Amino acid sequence: MVKCPNTGRELSTGIETDQAGFDRLPRLLTYSRCPLCRLEHAWWKREAWLAESDASEAATETAA
Ligand SMILES: [Zn+2]
Asked: How far is CA 40 from the centre of its chain?
């Protein structure tokens, strides 16, 4: 995932990978079409993060 600089919202890079695959991604500038503002954003790997399935964590926050 990366953050859209125009809307401040998270968007998918279109790259689906696990942690191991993410670690192997080259440190290159990557372009992804943003569905939020319909522009292409350039992002570095260090600016991206994996979309975690943290539904349980969110549920815990809601419960707390
Ligand atoms: Zn955008």
From this structure: 14
